[in-house]
Amino acid sequence: MHTHKLRAASWLLASTAICSSPSWANTQHEAHVHGQVELNIAQDGNDLLLEITAPASDVLGFEHAPKTEAEQQALNTALQQLNQAASLFSLPAEARCSLQDNHVTHTLPSHSDDEHEDHDEHEHEHEHEHEHEDHHGHAEFSVQSVYRCEQIQQLGQLTLNWFSYFPATENIQVQAISDKGQTAATLKAAQPLFRF
Ligand SMILES: [Zn+2]
């Protein structure tokens, strides 16, 4: 189907971004910055791929495996929100885009990774726990949304509703590749509209 073309577009987006912008390349390998989310947009014919990468701390407020009921609940709520691509992005109605596929993944450590910790229930282990988290490093959420737009020439812009769901995010770095060329921008809560 169109997946293969989109994958090519996604690859193109990644490779051209690395060639043209060293700072972008660094973010692929170094730890993310909390408060900074990345959005890659790839348009290929009538297909549109939106890919968000967000620090788990932006989404949940933590980057470890959920340990309490409240944390588990926060994760469930976040997954529900991220699965509703239609509420994360506002696309112009005249472009007549319909969501074909939405895929949410995260890199939070699983409970089993932390199993040895669960045996340590002493208060003084608390400090050790934080060290342990540091060793695990960061965790991220990724959302891939694939749209098919009947009037893709009418697209031209999209609004990110991300900030209203995840107020810990300070800015969103957007990179787009479309028939019109390559565009980049930084979006903030006060200015969540991206034109391309
Ligand atoms: Zn982090």
Outline the structure in words:
This protein is 35% helix and 32% strand. By secondary structure, it is α+β, with helices and mostly antiparallel strands. It has one domain (3-12, 33-108, 139-195). The strands form two sheets. A six-stranded mixed beta sheet has the order 4-5-2-1-7-8, sandwiched between helices. Strands 3-6-9 form a three-stranded antiparallel beta sheet. Strand 7 (171-178) and strand 8 (181-187) form a beta hairpin. Helix 1 (3-20) crosses helix 2. The structure holds zinc ion. Keywords: Signal. It comes from Photobacterium halotolerans. InterPro entries: ZrgA-like. Residues 1-25 form the signal peptide.
Give the termini distance in whole angstroms.
25 Å
Structural class: alpha+beta
Report the mean per-residue pLDDT as an integer.
Answer: 82
Q: Taking Cα atoms only, what radius of gyration do you get, to the nearest Å?
A: 18 Å
Biggest sheet strand line-up: 4-5-2-1-7-8
Strand segment tally = 9
Roughly how much helix do the residues carry, as a percent range? 25-40%
Domain unit count: 1
Which segments are poorly predicted (pLDDT under 50) over 5 or more consecutive residues? 15-29, 117-125, 127-135
Q: Rough shape?
A: elongated
Query: Helical region count?
Result: 8
Strand-and-helix sequence, N→C? HHEEHHHEEHHEEHEEE
Bound molecules: zinc ion
Largest sheet: 6 strands, mixed
